[in-house]
């Protein structure tokens, strides 16, 4: 994907691999990695990462547990420095607390007694990082309007004033999304937002994210274990496995051989009668365990 | 803290009349009562305010342990002839710093904290034993001695109180964010570990002050119970904090007032009043929920579309039990909030 950087820095070296269609007069590269490696202590998690994500793309991040998917997100958030190579977000080095990035980390279910409304949670996404007490006034009213708008965008207006702990998993996930969206980010990073949701909710939340991202021209990177709910909306698939990071078109990645090699476990990709694609983890029926 | 219990029974036993204002004027003639109210007011404010975060961050047991560490400090100070309040402050401060250094993984686990609690208490007992002074010293530290507060103690309380309020006001939003949502707060650039440490240090100071009123063993009554009540009654962070302060003030003032007339420990009155309010709050909640349940026609919420589904539609998998079936426009809960706003 060839992109021009929109900053005054020296123009980025164009990524060699021409990938899926970026529009001409292309918008700037949102995320760029050049031969990046990451370490934890003395262990290299992955290395040789070389990829580019353009504006408005919806990228699913796949990979086995412990492969370094969350590490990838932390890199983009500026919480982790690469041990090699260079990372570029919006054409510059990642900054902690970048207001243009919305982050939805993996969350367990909230304590039912948590004394906070959904609205307050979203409000924190707007001004929680500012010191001091909020002062009443026009700015406050503007903030309220922004919060209302974010809540409406995710369909959470009806239960925004209820304590968050008492909401269902799907409702909570919408609020977390609203919290990330309220600051009007250009890049949205989500770490397993579909985990612990039932199938209907998984599909609904996936579609909600895709819809909001389309409307607001947000680039989305979403870590998931289950690609099924996302197959209709994803542009490219990034996978992190066995010390490597690579990106490719869904058709190339979502293949039986590729996924089996990726996960080191039997996976089959099936197309149903309507042409929809399903990824199925197979049970190891073979009694001889050393088959790889 | 003078470590001596003034005996009110020596003077003519004051009698409670129904003219509360006259009673108040009566008791404020005595400097020790003025000091008691002054210190009590300051400490109730900061204990209530910080208590909001103690409950939010799940640090009730850690706070209790800090108080016990302070006990060892106070007893040690008395042993070497220093004002016990300084020993109290020093030890809780150092204890808090220690907890901060060890990190949440240690002080969040009740096993580790409990072990420290036992050691601190044992150390305090040793010091008390070595101090060939009055046995009432231990009593005062363990159960509080607001009626023995000196003018110097009030001055210290004022300084600590001012510092605490300024610090809390300046970190209100970040601390709230970090307490509720640490990962996102960190991603937004907040220094969550420093905030946690700063909070612990403030807690150490507030615990040291609160111990003078209710003592080490009843620290919960000022630090935890008012905030716990507030957090059940309202879900708005700002209001909950103010409500916690109001409740703490009420139980402290009422406690000191009653303790003037009845020669029972102040800690007892404060604890009991706080507990009574807590019971009332719980009963009120149950009553409100029962009232809601009496009107089952309201639709349940469907988390998928965000719109109302028909009653009887299967609700989504969720963490809570019956509560999440309640309609979004919970009138009774709103009344509770409105009533105490």
Describe what you observe in this structure:
- The complex is a heterodimer of chains A (292) and B (341).
- Chain A is α/β, with parallel strands linked by helices.
- Helices cover 27% and strands 24% of the residues of chain A.
- Chain A has two domains: 1-100 and 187-197 and 215-249, Rossmann fold (3-Layer(aba) Sandwich), CATH 3.40.50.300; 101-184, no CATH class.
- Chain A has a six-stranded mixed β-sheet with strand order 5-6-7-3-8-9, with helices on both faces. A three-stranded antiparallel β-sheet of chain A has the order 2-1-4, with helices on one face. Chain A has a two-stranded antiparallel ribbon with strand order 10-11.
- In chain A, strand 10 (267-271) and strand 11 (277-281) form a beta hairpin.
- Chain A is globular and about 60 Å long.
- Mean pLDDT of chain A is 83; it is low at 1-26.
- Chain B has one domain: ABC transporter involved in vitamin B12 uptake, BtuC (Orthogonal Bundle), CATH 1.10.3470.
- Chain B is mostly helical and 341 residues long.
- In chain B, 71% of the residues lie in helices and 0% in strands.
- Chain B is built from 15 helices and no strands.
- Classes of the chains: A alpha/beta (292), B mainly alpha (341).
- The interface between A and B is large, with 56 and 46 residues.
Level-1 CATH class name of the largest domain in chain A = Alpha Beta
Query: How would the global form of chain A be characterised?
Result: globular
Q: Please state the CA-atom Rg of chain A, rounded to the nearest Å.
A: 20 Å
Helix and strand composition category of chain A: alpha/beta
Task: Output the helix-strand order of chain B.
Answer: HHHHHHHHHHHHHHH
State the domain count of chain A. Answer: 2
Most extensive contact: A-B, 56 and 46 residues
Order of helices and strands of chain A: EEEHEEHHHEHEEEHHEE
Quick one: biggest sheet of chain A? 6 strands, mixed
Compute the number of helices of chain B.
15
Tell me the Rg of chain B in angstroms.
Answer: 22 Å
Indicate the percent of residues in helices of chain A: 25-40%
CATH topology of chain B: ABC transporter involved in vitamin B12 uptake, BtuC
End-to-end CA span of chain A: 35 Å
Give me the CATH superfamily of the largest domain in chain A.
Answer: P-loop containing nucleotide triphosphate hydrolases
